[in-house]
Amino acid sequence: MTNKDLLxxxxxxxETTGLKEEQVVExxxxxxxxxxxxxxxxxxxxxxxxEEKSDLKVYKQYMVVEDYDxxxxxxxxxxxxxxxxxxxxxxxxxxxxxxxxxxxxxGHYAMRDxxxxxNDTILNYQKQNLHDxxxxxxxxxxxxxxxxxxxxxxxxxxxxETTLLPRSETLERDNLHVGAVxxxxxxxxxxxxxxxxxxxxxxxxxxxIKLMELxxxxxxxxxxxxxxxxxxxxxxxxxGVRTNNPQxxxxxxxxxxxxxxxxxxxxxLAGEKIDLFRWSDNEKELIENALQPSDVIAVTKINPRxxxxxxxxxxxxxxxxxxxxxxxxxxxxxxxxxxxxxxxEEMAAEEGILYWASQLEKYRCVHVLWQKKSYLRxx
Length: 379
Hints:
Blueprint: H1 3-8, H2 10-17, H3 21-40, E1 45-50, E2 55-65, E3 77-80, H4 81-87, E4 96-101, H5 108-136, E5 141-149, E6 153-157, E7 162-166, E8 181-192, E9 195-201, H6 205-215, H7 217-220, E10 224-232, E11 236-243, H8 250-255, H9 260-268, E12 273-278, H10 283-290, E13 298-303, E14 308-313, H11 318-322, H12 327-336, E15 339-344, H13 345-350, E16 354-357, E17 362-365, H14 368-378
Parallel strand pairs: 2-3, 11-12, 14-15
Antiparallel strand pairs: 1-2, 2-4, 5-6, 5-8, 6-7, 8-9, 10-11, 13-14, 16-17
Helix pairs in contact: 2-3, 3-5, 6-9
């Protein structure tokens, strides 16, 4: 096969391997250099591409020396000046001498080395291209199909590559099986000797954001902004939204007509509940909204530096505000970024806590003595 023959196959090889033509040329170059080194016993060779890939030339390289010197840079094979002059009468000590060679001279072992280096370079580029593709999609959502399963993992097809989805990173209510289509979140991508390692999950809070972007146009185009989110994967997520457009209701836009939009998100999450609340730059309103569905009578003891506050709730809604196993307040804290303590009206009264009852628009001075007097008047 001539040098021109090698170049004429670049397009076909690129299409077959999924590489760019420049990468195939680099693989050919690396292969020719490996064969050159084996055939001529030199440390370095160079391949020159001629006239827009129409031909190429291969050169073996020597460093011209007066006498062999072991202290010199070992990058290049040394050649005595007297021998160099027989090749090129203009050769000088200290200069790099290049001698053109013909790849058709390659013997059996040289051809083996050339093919091995070519294949290795192609494989490395394929690995790198896959890594780069998925690295660009890191922290993004991709649609995948389950193609196999084991007691601990699902193997999923991401289109360009397959990877493992641990069962521990799926939802309990997921009914995954071979052939099922699922949205996954690419949490990390890194290179390993065998190729890119792609870590995926269904439990990441950002998966909820990506699904909302997919199903809610106002979220996708930025009209509605998701400012805070927290998630108890598989059970409930709490999402704080806002908009700078006075004509748009951020909650209504997310819910959609008849709840169609938010239902699509819930369906993709195997029935996980989504609590939407209106984000506010006013810390009292933010905390009140984040604690929904519970009513909040007042927010007091606000410490902006430490981002701590106390929420007072109706006696009959203390359990609702805290949530089952503390879920509601935990999600409210994570979504809002505020550490929230919760007390009922009765608890606040017993501790003599003073607060402004925003819902009643008046001061409520609450302490143990006042509560006792009130109780006596009623009885």
